[in-house]
User: Which sequence fits this backbone?
C-alpha cells in the first residue's frame, strides 16, 4: 500500500515523460493507476466487511515515533474507494476536457500528486504522517486552483484557499501535538482506544478547538466557507474531484476518524451540530444567489459538508449511518453534476445558467445524466440521495439538544437544495434553445463516461440500498458504533421525515419557479453580504500587509544606529528578564583591591569617557590611547605578560595609524539633537549596566572544571615550550592562529587596495573589494 | 578587584555603544575600538584574576609550581587583540576613502551607492 502511494508520486513526476510517449492518451494511461488501486481495494473488501483491520507499518523516523503506517478499516476503505474510483473517472474526463491544452502534463502531475496525498491522508495511522499528507493536499489544491495562473482572479482564489486551509493546518498541527501529549501516542488506532482518558484530560478543550479549526477550514465550514466557491476558478475536473468529492471531505473524514476518541461530549456535540447546521443553511441560502453553475454547485457542496458535520455532531448510531449514506450519495451525485457543469461550460462557452436553455435537444445524453444526478441531489426517490436525506432528517428529529433549531435549519436547507437541483438540471436543458458563445454539441464519450457512471451508481444503489448494508456497517464500526445493525431501505413508511420531504418538494419547486424574482430581491442584501467572513479575510490580509510595511519601515530604515538600538533593546529585554527572574543577581560582592590597581581602572574609565566627549579628533584618539595603555597595565598586574606586550604594541600602532589617517579630517560636527543624545545615553548606559550585572553573576557563580589544567600540565611535555600561552597559540590551537593570519593578510590587502586608488578615479573606487571586513 | 573591573568594563561598553550610535563615521570607528577593548577585558576578567603567577613553566620543570593564571583566556584575548587591530586598520582606511569621495563624516549622507 505504501509502495502504491509513494509509487503514485513517482508516476506523477513522470507525467511529462508519459505525455511525450502517449500524447493525448496520457490521462487514460494514468487513470490505470487509480483503477488498479480500486481493484486492489475491492479485493480487500471481504476481509474489511468481516470487520478485519489492515495495519501496514513502515518505520520512517523511528527516533521520533513517526511511522509511515497505513490503516485500512471500513471508514478508510470507503474514502479510499471514492478517491480511486472518482479519480480514475476524473482522469478520463480530463483527457477530453483539456484536450490539446499546452499545460496538460503539468495538470496531470499535480492532479496525480493530489490523488496520492489524499489517499495517504485517509489511510495514515500516524498523526504526523496524516498531517504531512494533509498539507500536501492543501498545496496541490493551491496549484490546481491557480492552474490558469495568467488569470488574476484564479491567483487570488488559489491564495485564499491556501491561506485558509494552511492556516487551519497550523491549528491542526497544534491540535495533533496536544492530542499526542494527552493520549500518549501518535497512532490514531491507539488513540481511538483511549477515548475515555482523552475526554477527561485537562487539554481536551484546547485540543478539540485546534482540531476543529483545522477540520472546519478544510471542509469549508462557516465562517471559513468562502474559499470553496472562490476555488471554482480551477478547471472543472478539479472542482469535481478536489472541491466536491474528496479534499473538502478531508476535514469531515478527520472528524469522523476522531469521533470515537473525542466525540460524545457536550462541547463536541454542540460545536459540531450547530456549526454544521448553520453551514448547511448558509450554503443553501447563498447558492440561490448565484447564476454561475459552478458557484451554485459549490455552495450546495458547502451545504452538504455542513450536513455531514452536523450528523457527526449528533453522534447517535442513526446519525452515523446517515453520515455514511449521505457522504456516499453526495460524492456520487456532486461529482457527476460538476462534470456535467464542465460539459456545459465546454460546449456552450458560458457558465451562467440564465444564458442557457433548451440544450436537451442538442445534448440529450448529457441532459439524462444531469437529470438523474440532480434528482439525487434533490433527494428524490428512488435515488441514493433520497435515502441519505431521509436518514438525515430522521437524525435531526432525533437530536438530543437543540432539536428545534437543528430541524428547522435542516428543513430549510433541504428545500433550498431542491431548488438548486431544479435550477441546475432544468434551466439549461429545458425551455427554448438560446444562443450561447459556442454552438453546443453532444459531449465526447470520454467526458460523458464519468458522470454517466456516477449517476448510474446513484440510481442503482438508490434502487437497492440494501446492497450497501455491509459497507455502511463496516464504516460505522470505524466511527465507533460497533455491531450496529444497519438496514437501508428506500421506503420507510409514512413518517415525519417523509412528510418533511414532501413539504420541501413543494417549497423547493416554489423557490425554483420564482427564482428570477427572488434573486432580484436578494440582490438588495448585497451590502450585508459584503460584510461577511470574506470581507474579514480581506481585511486581515490587508492588515497583515500594512503591518509588515510599518514594521519594515520601523526596523529596516537604513540607519545603522536604529538597527543597533533595536537589537540592543531586544537583547536587554531578554537577558534582563532571564537575569532578574531566573537568577536574581546580588550586588553583595567583596571588593578587595590595591590602590594602584584602582588607579589603573580609574584611568581606563576616564580614557573611555574622555573619548566620548572630546570635540577634537586628535584628543579623542589620545583618550582612546590612554584607555588602551591602562588595559595593558591591567594585563601586567594580573599575570598576563604576553597580552601586555601585544596590547602595548598594537595600541602604539593604532594611535600612529589614527593620527596619520585622520589627521586631515575636520573637527567633529554636532550632528544629533539633545533628545537623540539623551536616548543614546540611556540605551548605552543600560547596556553597560547589564554587562556589569552579568559579569558579577558570572564571577559569583561556580567554576566548571577548567580545560586549562590539561594545557598547563601538557605544555612542556608535549609542546616543548615554557610559555604556556605561546604553546596554546602555535600548538594546541595552531589552526586558529593560521586563520587569524589569513584575516590579517586579507585586511592588509584591502588596505593596500584602497590606498592605491585615489579619490580622482571614482569608477575604480566604487568597485573596491568589501569582503575583507569580516575579521 | 574583579567587581571593580566589572564596573569599569560596564562603563567601557556603555561608552562604546554610545559612540557607535553617533552619525559620524569616525566616532563609529572609535566606538568599535572601545568595544573590542572592552570585550577583550571581559573575557580576561571572567576567567578570574591571579596576581603574580604568569602562565610560564620554569626551566627544567615539566609544570609550573603553585597556582598560575589561566592561560586559555589569555590565548583567546591575544588572538582577539591582533584581529581587532586588523579590522580597525581596514575600517580606518575605509573611512578615509569614504571621506575623500563623499567629503562628509556623516553616515546619513552615505545612504545610496551612487555618491
Assistant:
Amino acid at each position: 500500500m505504501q509502495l502504491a502511494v509513494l509509487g503514485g508520486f513517482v508516476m506523477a513526476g513522470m507525467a511529462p515523460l508519459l505525455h511525450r510517449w502517449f500524447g493525448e492518451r496520457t490521462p487514460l494511461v494514468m487513470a490505470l493507476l487509480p483503477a488498479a488501486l480500486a481493484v486492489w481495494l475491492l479485493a480487500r473488501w471481504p476481509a474489511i466487511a468481516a470487520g478485519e483491520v489492515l495495519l501496514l507499518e513502515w518505520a520512517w523516523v523511528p527516533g521520533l515515533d513517526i511511522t509511515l503506517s497505513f490503516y485500512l478499516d471500513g471508514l478508510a476503505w470507503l474514502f479510499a474507494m471514492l478517491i480511486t474510483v472518482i479519480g480514475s473517472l476524473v482522469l478520463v474526463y480530463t483527457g477530453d476536457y483539456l484536450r490539446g491544452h499546452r499545460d496538460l502534463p503539468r495538470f496531470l502531475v499535480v492532479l496525480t500528486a493530489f490523488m496520492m496525498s489524499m489517499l495517504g491522508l485517509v489511510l495514515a495511522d500516524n498523526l504526523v504522517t496524516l498531517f504531512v499528507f494533509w498539507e500536501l493536499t492543501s498545496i496541490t489544491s493551491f496549484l490546481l486552483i491557480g492552474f490558469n495562473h495568467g488569470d488574476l482572479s484564479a491567483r487570488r482564489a488559489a491564495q485564499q484557499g491556501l491561506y485558509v486551509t494552511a492556516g487551519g493546518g497550523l491549528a491542526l498541527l497544534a491540535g495533533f501535538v496536544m492530542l499526542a501529549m494527552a493520549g500518549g501516542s501518535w497512532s490514531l488506532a491507539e488513540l481511538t482506544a483511549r477515548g475515555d482518558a482523552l475526554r477527561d484530560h485537562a487539554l481536551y478543550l484546547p485540543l478539540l478547538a485546534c482540531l476543529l479549526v483545522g477540520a472546519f477550514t478544510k471542509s469549508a465550514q462557516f465562517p471559513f466557507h468562502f474559499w470553496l466557491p472562490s476555488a471554482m476558478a480551477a478547471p472543472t475536473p478539479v472542482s469535481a474531484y478536489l472541491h466536491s468529492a474528496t479534499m473538502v471531505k478531508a476535514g469531515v473524514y478527520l472528524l469522523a476518524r476522531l469521533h470515537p476518541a473525542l466525540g460524545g461530549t457536550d462541547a463536541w456535540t454542540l460545536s459540531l451540530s450547530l456549526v454544521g447546521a448553520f453551514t448547511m443553511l448558509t450554503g443553501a441560502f447563498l447558492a440561490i444567489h448565484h447564476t454561475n453553475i459552478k458557484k451554485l454547485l459549490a455552495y450546495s457542496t458547502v451545504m452538504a459538508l455542513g450536513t455531514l458535520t452536523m450528523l457527526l455532531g449528533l453522534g447517535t448510531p442513526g446519525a452515523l449511518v446517515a453520515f455514511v449514506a449521505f457522504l456516499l450519495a453526495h460524492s456520487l451525485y456532486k461529482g457527476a453534476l460538476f462534470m456535467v457543469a464542465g460539459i456545459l461550460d465546454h460546449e456552450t462557452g458560458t457558465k451562467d445558467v440564465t444564458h442557457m436553455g433548451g440544450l436537451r435537444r442538442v445534448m440529450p445524453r448529457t441532459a439524462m445524466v444531469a437529470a438523474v444526478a440532480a434528482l439525487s441531489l434533490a433527494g428524490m426517490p428512488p435515488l441514493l440521495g433520497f435515502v441519505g436525506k431521509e436518514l438525515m432528517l430522521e437524525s435531526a428529529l432525533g437530536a438530543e439538544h437543540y432539536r428545534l433549531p437543528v430541524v428547522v435549519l435542516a428543513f430549510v436547507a433541504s428545500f433550498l437544495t431542491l431548488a438548486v437541483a431544479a435550477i441546475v438540471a432544468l434551466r439549461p436543458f429545458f425551455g427554448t434553445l438560446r444562443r450561447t458563445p459556442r454552438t453546443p454539441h453532444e459531449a465526447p464519450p470520454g467526458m460523458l463516461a464519468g458522470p454517466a457512471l456516477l449517476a448510474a451508481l446513484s440510481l442503482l444503489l438508490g434502487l437497492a440500498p440494501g446492497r450497501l448494508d455491509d459497507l455502511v456497517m463496516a464504516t460505522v464500526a470505524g466511527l465507533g458504533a460497533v455491531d450496529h445493525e444497519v438496514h437501508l431501505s428506500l421506503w420507510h413508511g409514512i413518517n415525519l421525515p417523509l412528510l418533511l420531504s414532501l413539504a420541501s418538494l413543494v417549497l423547493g419547486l416554489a423557490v425554483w419557479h420564482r427564482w428570477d424574482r427572488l434573486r432580484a430581491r436578494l440582490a438588495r442584501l448585497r451590502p450585508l453580504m459584503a460584510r461577511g467572513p470574506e470581507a474579514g479575510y480581506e481585511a486581515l490580509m490587508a492588515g497583515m500587509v500594512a503591518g509588515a510595511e510599518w514594521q519594515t519601515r520601523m526596523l529596516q530604515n537604513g540607519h545603522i544606529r536604529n538597527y543597533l538600538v533595536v537589537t540592543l533593546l531586544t537583547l536587554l529585554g531578554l537577558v534582563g528578564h532571564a537575569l532578574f527572574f531566573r537568577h536574581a543577581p546580588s550586588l553583595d560582592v567583596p571588593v578587595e583591591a590595591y590602590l594602584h590597581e584602582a588607579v589603573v581602572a580609574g584611568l581606563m574609565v576616564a580614557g573611555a569617557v574622555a573619548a566620548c566627549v572630546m570635540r577634537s579628533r586628535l584628543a579623542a584618539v589620545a583618550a582612546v590611547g590612554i584607555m588602551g595603555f591602562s588595559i595593558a597595565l591591567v594585563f601586567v598586574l594580573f599575570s598576563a605578560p604576553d597580552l601586555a606586550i601585544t596590547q602595548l604594541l598594537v595600541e602604539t600602532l593604532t594611535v600612529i595609524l589614527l593620527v596619520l589617517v585622520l589627521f586631515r579630517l575636520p573637527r567633529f560636527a554636532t550632528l544629533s539633537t539633545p533628545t537623540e543624545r539623551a536616548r543614546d545615553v540611556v540605551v548605552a548606559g543600560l547596556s553597560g549596566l547589564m554587562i556589569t550585572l552579568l559579569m558579577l553573576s558570572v564571577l559569583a557563580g561556580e567554576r566548571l572544571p577548567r580545560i586549562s589544567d590539561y594545557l598547563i600540565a601538557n605544555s612542556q611535555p608535549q609542546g616543548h615550550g615554557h610559555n604556556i600561552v605561546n604553546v596554546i597559540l602555535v600548538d594546541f590551537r595552531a589552526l586558529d592562529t593560521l586563520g587569524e593570519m589569513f584575516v590579517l593578510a586579507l585586511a592588509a590587502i584591502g588596505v593596500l587596495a584602497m590606498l592605491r586608488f585615489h579619490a580622482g578615479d571614482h569608477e575604480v573606487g566604487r568597485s573596491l573589494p568589501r569582503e575583507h571586513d569580516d575579521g | 578587584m574583579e567587581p571593580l573591573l566589572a564596573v569599569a568594563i560596564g562603563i567601557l561598553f556603555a561608552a562604546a555603544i554610545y559612540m557607535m550610535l553617533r552619525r559620524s563615521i569616525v566616532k563609529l570607528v572609535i566606538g568599535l575600538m572601545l568595544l573590542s577593548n572592552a570585550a577583550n577585558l571581559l573575557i580576561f576578567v571572567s576567567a578570574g584574576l591571579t596576581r603574580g603567577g604568569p602562565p610560564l613553566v620554569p626551566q627544567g620543570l615539566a609544570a609550573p609550581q603553585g597556582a598560575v593564571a589561566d592561560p586559555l583566556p589569555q590565548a583567546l584575548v591575544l588572538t582577539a587583540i591582533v584581529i581587532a587591530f586588523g579590522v580597525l586598520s581596514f575600517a580606518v582606511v575605509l573611512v578615509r576613502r569614504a571621506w575623500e569621495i563623499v567629503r562628509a563624516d556623516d553616515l546619513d549622507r552615505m545612504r545610496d551607492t551612487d555618491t
